[in-house]
Each structure stands twice: as C-alpha cells, then as structure tokens.
Design brief:
182 residues, mainly alpha, three-stranded antiparallel beta sheet, elongated
Length: 182
C-alpha cells in the first residue's frame, strides 16, 4: 500500500465493534474486512447455539459460555484492526521522515538526484557554479524558474515546490502533487 495516510486507531476499533470487518474497511484492508466478517458470521452460525442467539436478540443475556467463541473472534478482529492502524501510522511517519530526509539532502547537496544531468542534456549550466552562491540559493533559483525552453513547441513548467519539470498539460506537479501556478 503505497498511498498511505494517517488513520485513527480508536475509530478502527469502534467501527470493528459496530460491524465486524468495518474497522478493516476503514483501513482499506478489503480482504481482511471480508475475512473477519465471514469469520464472525461463521462463528455465530456454526458454533454459537441458536438458543443463545435467540436470547441475545430478545434482550436476555445468554450464558457467557455459549457466546464466548463469538466474543473471542470479535475481540481478535478489534485487536487486529487496532494493530493494523498503529502499524499504518508508524509506516506513514517513517515514509514522511524519509521524504523529509531526502528533501533536506537535496537542499544540502544543491542538486536533486533525479535532475543531475539536466544541465548537460539541455545545454544549461548550474546557476551557482560560477557565482559562488550557496547550495540553498542555487536550489531556490531552480525552483523560482517558471518555464524552461527546451527548443520544442511546448514549454515545460518547473514546479515551484520541488523544482522538477512538470507536464504543461496538468495544473499540478505529477511529482509532488502541488498546484503549479501558471
């Protein structure tokens, strides 16, 4: 799952308690959601006695021994939803730190690894190479450029956020998904 976002573990738990599998659906774990729904339903149909289900529906508390298997399966589903939400959030934070580290690495080195050969391929030179400016100022100059003429009919738009060239057909950067003002 590459498109991560933060999830609320308490909401996943609450949804898993309301309807089995719903907490996993909130986490976008569709196969697990279906699997937990089937597991709870199968436990209720195959393991829990019909008399206990009838008493529960009528509002009378059935003997705990009769409904214990269903309670255990629901508890396992709730715990699984909570653990998955926490794991998702840890991976989201790790990805966020990795992206922040890559961004700070680009700022300190002055060039993005993906754009290392753009000066040679377009005939342009590094604006900070002969002026003695710092790497941060050079990177700022690169991101301030709004268009780059590559000799063709279409001018490529440079993203003001990440500095990469974007497709002029889009009004957002396909690399960082930030809007590109024309």
């Amino acid at each position: 799952m590459t498109d991560r976002s933060r999830r609320r573990p308490w909401l996943a738990v609450l949804l898993a308690l309301v309807v089995s599998g719903l907490g996993h659906a909130y986490l976008r774990r569709w196969a697990r959601a279906f699997g937990w729904y089937v597991a709870v339903t199968a436990t209720l149909v195959l393991v829990v006695p019909d008399a206990a289900v009838d008493r529960l529906v009528a509002g009378d508390p059935p003997p705990i021994a009769d409904i214990a298997p269903a309670v255990l399966v629901v508890a396992a589903s709730v715990i699984d939803a909570y653990v998955l939400a926490r794991r998702n959030n840890r991976e989201y934070e790790r990805d966020k730190r990795t992206k922040a580290g890559a961004t700070s690495e680009r700022v300190t080195s002055g060039t993005a690894p993906e754009r290392a050969d753009t000066g040679a391929s377009t005939g342009q030179t590094d604006p900070g190479a002969s002026t003695g400016r710092t790497d941060t100022e050079t990177l700022t100059d690169r991101s301030d450029r709004s268009t780059v003429d590559d000799g063709g009919d279409v001018e490529a738009v440079s993203c003001p956020h990440c500095g990469r060239e974007t497709d002029p057909a889009f009004d957002f950067c396909q690399w960082c998904a930030e809007p590109v003002d024309e």
